[in-house]
Amino acid sequence: MAGFLMKQMVGNQLSEVTGGLGMKDDGGEKTEAGEDPEVVAARLEQEERRKEKHRKMEQEREKMRQGIRDKYAIKKKEEGVAMDFTEGRIGGPRKTPEEIAAEMNAEDDSIIGQLGLTEQVEKAKTMATGAFETVKGFFPFGK
């Protein structure tokens, strides 16, 4: 009952006070997203300023990089140049069995091969390896 009497006395004046935030409609322009065009323009201007700032910073960095390249005589990597990588490998391309055999024959042409000591060197390697394995069995670091 008190609410009814209050509404009769105050009338529509209460809605004018409380409805100020929710009922305000100034009829201003809105974009498709429902934002004020001034806000959209301010955002675009801010984005342009940010891009310009980053562009200037990148120019300064490139100038500094070029100074380092000049100081140490380093060539700049060309972005369009294809590197000679074998896909999926860290090292270079694998050698064929023929290339490995050719290298083994080339080792025989070394000073040991020329002196005819290849067999003696192989025997010494075998003995040293065997001795090492024997000693390694006696000590705990070999297990």
UniProtKB/TrEMBL annotation:
InterPro entries hit by this protein: Synaphin
GO terms for MF: syntaxin binding
Region span, Disordered: 17-71
Subcellular compartments: Cytoplasm, Cytosol
SUPFAM superfamilies tied to this protein: SNARE fusion complex
GO biological process, one term: synaptic vesicle exocytosis
Main location: cytoplasm
One cellular-component annotation, GO: SNARE complex
Keywords on record: Coiled coil, Exocytosis, Neurotransmitter transport, Transport
Keyword Signal set for record: no
Superkingdom of this protein's organism: Eukaryota
UniProt cross-references to Pfam families, sorted A to Z: Synaphin
Basic and acidic residues composition-biased segments: 23-33, 44-71
Family, per entry: Belongs to the complexin/synaphin family.
Role summary: Positively regulates a late step in synaptic vesicle exocytosis.
Protein name: Putative complexin-1
